[in-house]
Amino acid sequence: MKGVGVGSVEEYLDKVSDIQPAVIVVCAMDASVSDVSSQLARLKAAGINVPVIVMADASNVDLILTALNCEANGFIPADISLEIAAHALRLVIAGGKYFPVNGLLAARRAPPVSASCEVTPKTTLFTRRQIAVIDALRKGKANKIIAYELNMCESTVKVHVRNIMKKLNAKNRTEVAYLAGEMLGDDNR
Fold it and tell me: pTM score > 0.70 for this model?
């Protein structure tokens, strides 16, 4: 894994034609939530198609939520071992996502992050019908049962499931149920 260091997102964007990284790590040790949000938004607006990881203090729940809301591919706490950080980088490069469980559990109890990204908030990412389908998926119901309960065609349920999977970047129904549970919490269950 080859590494290239630059001082800022702007410097990277200036050299983007010269640098072809496998992953971008945004070091946000002393950065505010709004700074990180704007850096991630600039990368997205520039059309950068490289996985992005935010690295910062693990106790900063707001930065973890910002990374999630801005569709970063991971968050690496500064206090984890080098071995775990290397595994997290490999996971993200392979197409996965890495967020520390302790940070996510703390985030569930934390108030919402005030900084906004160019990205749509997760709760408004889905229509009411899609949320109803997600709720049924989380309960393990089959498409036929979901269609009957929501008074729609089974093919419509399949379209909703496919669109939900695309929005969540999920590969199957189980992953939809898991990711939606993390995103929407237990209130929508």
Answer: no
